[in-house]
Design brief:
The protein is globular, with a radius of gyration of 16 Å. By secondary structure, it is α+β, with helices and mostly antiparallel strands. The protein contains two helices and four strands. Strand 1, helix 1 and strand 2 form a beta-alpha-beta unit. Helix 1 packs parallel to helix 2. The site of FE2/S2 (inorganic) cluster has 12 residues, from loops.
């Protein structure tokens, strides 16, 4: 059995219903993202698969946009940030370091026997 959907180059997850962003703001960001994808010819299943999701568990830095398969998590996304993400990351393959959320480094365990 073959999968009828082509594998997309990127998969995008935008949070939209948790504590970091009001639903109305998430929908505005979604509208802007979809418009940018269409403007650049990325609104097809071979290029992008997009999903508005509930929460990505880092609400203190949201709204969050995740870009897979690169494993990049963009923080405090706004319309200007979306434009840069589409034009620099999705079109040119250059993730934007200063917009990314970085997990703090793991601390070594203490009192380990
Ligand atoms: S709602 Fe955005 S990370 Fe939780």
């Amino acid at each position: 059995m073959t999968n009828p959907l082509p594998k997309p180059k990127y998969r995008l997850l935008l949070c939209g219903r948790g504590e970091c962003v009001a639903r109305a703001q998430a929908l505005r960001l979604e509208t802007k993202l979809l418009a940018l994808l269409a403007q650049h010819g990325l609104d097809n299943p071979e290029s992008i698969r997009y999903q508005l999701v509930n929460c990505l568990n880092v609400c203190h830095s949201g709204p969050i946009l995740m870009v897979h398969p690169d494993g990049v998590m963009y923080r405090q996304v706004d319309e200007a940030g979306l434009r840069r993400i589409v034009e620099e990351h999705l079109l040119r393959g250059q993730p934007i370091a200063e917009l990314q959320y970085h997990l703090p480094p793991l601390q070594p365990r203490r009192n380990v026997r």
